[in-house]
Amino acid sequence: MKRLLGLTRYAVVIPALASILGALLLMAQGSFSMVLAVIDSIQNQYGLKETIVEVLTAIDAILLGTVLLVIGYGLYELFIDTDIDVKSKLIGVVVAIIAVVFVGVFVDSNRADDVIAYGVGAGALVGGLALFAFATGKAGKKNKEKL
To answer: What would you measure as the largest C-alpha separation in the chain, in angstroms?
Structure first.
């Protein structure tokens, strides 16, 4: 029975691969959108705000793809191979996404009243993630020193 339960951990391989494939798709579409944004901006002589919105939209897709990639790696690490360190990379990607969303709100003139609220919320999330990384980093170092 224990052996059978141990083998069920390999069921996560398919969702991990699906997450990685979705990540590659989003990164490819985001990269393609970035190229189109550059071409459109040059050909149509878009203003700064239009260009920023197009570029941030493309970057958002790329960053979400990166999150899916890290999630796929994380699933694989959690159940199959524990030698991959994903946690700190995921925190960095989440902070980058928060920054992109905040800049999008900051640039959007229709949501100017929300800038302070988004800034405080983004700061709180980044602060919490920093504390988490600091706390788990120390715990991880202590566990490695014991080995």
So the answer is: 67
C-alpha 62/C-alpha 101 separation (Å) is: 13
Average pLDDT, the chain: 80
Q: Can you give 110-123 as a three-state secondary structure string?
A: HHHHHHHHHHHHHH
Nearest to 30 by CA among 69, 68, 56: 56
Extents of the domains making up the chain:
1-84, 85-147
CB-based contact 33:61 (threshold 8 Å):
yes
pLDDT < 70 stretches in the chain: 82-85, 87-88, 108-112, 138-147
Predicted TM-score of the model (pTM): 0.63
